Input
Amino acid sequence: MVGREHEIKVLNRLYDRNRAELVAIYGRRRVGKTYLVDETFSGRFTFRHAALSPADEESKGLLQAQLDHFYQSLVLYGMEEAKKPGSWAEAFFMLEKHLQKKDNGSRQVVFLDELPWLDTPKSGFMRAFEGFWNNWGCHRKNLMVIVCGSANSWILDNLINNHGGLYDRITYEINLSPFTLHECEAYYKANDIAFSRYDIVQGYMILGGIPYYMGYMDGEKSFAQNVDDMFFVRKPKLLNEFDRLFDSVFVNPEAVKRIVRLLYTRNAGYTRREITEKLKITDGGRLSRNLNALIAGDFIIKYVPFGLKKREEHYKLTDPFCLFYLHFLNPDRQNNPKFWQQNTTMPTVATWRGYAFENVCFNHVEQIKDALGISGVITTNSAWSKREDDKDGMQIDLLLCRNDNVINMCEIKFYSGEFAVNKRYYNTLMQRQEALAKEVSWKMVVHNTLITTNGLKKNEYSGIFTNTITLNDLFRESR
Output
């Protein structure tokens, strides 16, 4: 398996502990949660069950369909056939008896995939699951139960932040994130797909390091041909994926999509108050759950722009797939089946690349810190715009405010060649540096830092940058 070294190590450590474990794994759709568990524990499952998608059954008969399917999984894993369960309490009692019968003292691994789908309306699932764990499972030192799901709001509300019968019962949680650039490169190499790092970054800017999407890449075609196949041909592979991302995991997906579409309209993001005002919605628990689920799914980040207070924290859309879809495919999709091959130099694509590369950097701050030699320094990350109607260049893409009294003022530029600083840009940087210096303590030093694809061209103005981070630095392995 490519990547996930840390998660595999953690899961095997939990497996080796002599105590009951209830492990929750969550993250966005297609990020590889099921694959991680299946590969890590291949041949070691005592019981494994994947729920039925609610979209595949009529709601009236969904509970019985889920119970029948659970029973069938028990039979597949060696339980003697019996009367099918009529409730989740009976189903989990069957599971308890089955595990007891198979117990020889060694570790027992139970994997319940897409757990939120089992919790159908008025099914009594949560009460039965609480009873299974609290009255039986938590007392068995050789039992390891792994639950998984893409419905992050359900996982957070019912397991991670549960204030009822499962309060503080999760022994370990894993929020599985998309691949980094380092892992993307390893994935392509493992699948004999020859892409340059320049193309891998552009792939990340479109697909966001989601292994499932990357699996559509065809090594016999160019990068541009692959993009057209996924998005612009007559029947593209990922045309409906934006809706599926939210329809399959949120109770009210249209409300969530409205939030995502709003955040797309401003690169710096919006405050919570601005979100409620612009969408004309109530500022309450439902909004909190949706925002927290989007954060857990790596769709958005929450940050405080430089110079503002915590109550003015912003929500910013950083998911590459959503940004690409909303820029090129919504509301009107291009009818040209070779759009990407024929328009790679067009202004609309160049503009998108600039913003998309900024988000690559936001998603690889740890690699940037490592390249700067400050991995061990406590740092806060933010962006800064002097004014909303900024016309004088007083906008800074990324600020790394460090505990060692240094601020890295990062300029992010996506270029096919070396980036060259001219006199006009030099003066703009000087103005930004002076404006920033007025906003910080006299003890702080501002370091101009360039993050670009192919490095900095040396000339009379290039000395304005103290540090230069290149594409290769973003491919560093996470520590």
Remarks:
- The domain at 242-326 is CATH 1.10.10.10 (Arc Repressor Mutant, subunit A).
- The first helix runs from residue 5 to 16.
- The CA atoms of residues 366 and 479 lie 8 Å apart.
- The chain has four domains: 5-175, 181-239+333-348, 242-326, 364-474.
